[in-house]
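Posting this for the archive.
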Amino acid sequence: MITMLLGEAANFVAYVFAPAALVTPLGALSIIVSAVLAHFMLKERLQGMGVLGCLSCIVGSVVIVIHAPQEHSPSSVEEIWKLATQPAFLGYAAATLSLVLALILHFEPRYGQTNILIYLGVCSLMGSLTVVSIKAIGVAIKLTLEGINQVTYYQTWFFVMVALVCVISQLNYLNKALDTFNTAIVSPIYYVMFTTLTIVASAIMFKVQYPGILVEAVVIP
């Protein structure tokens, strides 16, 4: 538990200083460690395909890091709020919440115990919103420590509430997935889904620019 908290604290700091689309893929190391520890400590046998999946995660992370995206660094919580309320991201957030409700209310009672994608879908979708909120909170803390108080803005507390709700939901369904399915299978699938959705959310909200690709969004003035 202590090491997990330390790891999440380090992740939080990383999101403040680097693009979310770059930080998230580097979580591949935690996937490898989890799979290896589950193999030796929990006696959950890691099959050949599991090893191949872990290697694929590492290769994918290396490719993303090599082609690191260009991302504008917000200078205030108000600026992040404008990005979060642009039509493109509002559409993404609405679609995400709709899918989460569908998975929880319709698919979980029927297929939750047999289909790993139900629990991990909820985790990954909520996780993409968590990363965006954490980014805003990190910027608020950084600016406040520099003497530019962001605590008085209601947007800061809105992002805090969103982060709390998303994190609690994310952890709840991740624990359900781990209790129901093999850890060596849950970790790589969750990593791929979470990373993909985080990159998509960051690309839409922060207009992340990859080499040869620009994801444009209209920002409300």
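The chain is about 75% helix and 0% strand. The first helix runs from residue 2 to 17.
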